[in-house]
Amino acid sequence: MSIQITKEGILEALSTVEDPDLKKDLVTLGMIKNISIEQEVSKTTVHFTVVLTTPACPLKELIRNNCEKAIHEKYNESVRCQITMTSNVTTVRTGKILPEVKNIIAVASGKGGVGKSTVASNLAVALAQTGAKVGLIDADIFGPSIPTMFDCESARPGVRQEGDRYIILPFEKYDVKILSIGFLAPPDDAIVWRGPMASSAFRQFLVDTDWGELDYLFIDLPPGTSDIHLTLVQTVPVTGAVIVTTPQKVALEDVQKGVSMFTQPKINVPILGVIENMAYFTPAELPENKYYLFGQNGGKILAKRNDVPFLGEVPLVQAIREAGDSGTPITAQSEYSGNAENIETLKNQHHAVTETFKEIAQKLAQSVALRNAEQNPTEAVSLR
Ligand SMILES: Nc1ncnc2c1ncn2[C@@H]1O[C@H](COP(=O)(O)OP(=O)(O)OP(=O)(O)O)[C@@H](O)[C@H]1O
After folding, report:
1. 133 has pLDDT over 60
2. What CATH number did the domain enclosing 218 receive?
3. Residue where a domain terminates, one of 87, 109, 139
4. ipTM above 0.95, yes or no
5. What is the domain extent for residue 358?
6. Fewer CB atoms near the end CB (10 Å): N or C, the chain?
């Protein structure tokens, strides 16, 4: 005898399955789509799609198994489940500027030289590798390093004319769409770009650029707080900020000021998480050793103090610096390609660091999904 199964019954069963990150059930979160039931004399198959909120979700198989279990518990072990797992990055952004960009993520630090551009580049590449559509704006007028890190120092963005408007076309590399203040001003002239000219160029990157559809648009901000920060939050609603720090106390004090800038009531941009860069040094020839040159756990302490997620720590290793200088972020390299004597050790170190960036990128995507599910949309700031 065939079992009587209805769409309502399937939804009831699946409403007992929680998304482990978002801590709400899949039905409430609107993640269940395309339910259909195939009933034959001796077997019943239910089909449905689970739409995950992050690309390449690591919990995919767990969620799939829990769905199957819920259907079996409600009906019978003999019911077959054909579950399609897809993803659709969520958004809460509104407004006329960049409506096709789902999430704008500011990458900030209190101090210069903590590796903000390195982290932003690698997160952008790592998320693009999961199939997400990603863009990156290098707004660091004091030292635009993205052109070096993506080996496109002489690149000039294209332009398209629409009536009397000029639309900028970003440059694309490693599946990331890129624009940099460095494309407009030769490095030695960067100094004259401080102030209103830089802010106006940056505004054009947001307002007059054809970014197309993007899941994540990263903004690599200058260190500290600046006019560029204000231009950003005044021009577009920002999904959230990622804070990059090194562990030492002096860095943390500056970084705290950066955090407070975003979280002050007038600005109100949520912090998506803290990343500790150069957390420890591991020499290639002693891969098991960790030397905490700048102190330990500074990033974790900062995250705890501000009650925001800690996204992970990146070690200080030669391969990251070499990759940045060579114009291919380490996550975009399939393996270590130098010709050093200790090649096997360097390959292992390279692999470990690449995996670390991928894990941090995944945690960031989860943090964005959580922020979009739980918090109100950010609004562009109006300062008087
Ligand atoms: N984890 C790391 N291991 C080794 N070298 C690193 C690491 N992170 C960054 N670097 C190197 O440190 C230097 C500064 O990094 P980066 O330009 O990313 O910092 P930044 O915070 O963006 O700097 P700025 O304040 O000038 O914008 C670069 O040469 C980069 O390759």
Report:
1. yes
2. 3.40.50.300
3. 87
4. yes
5. 101-374
6. C
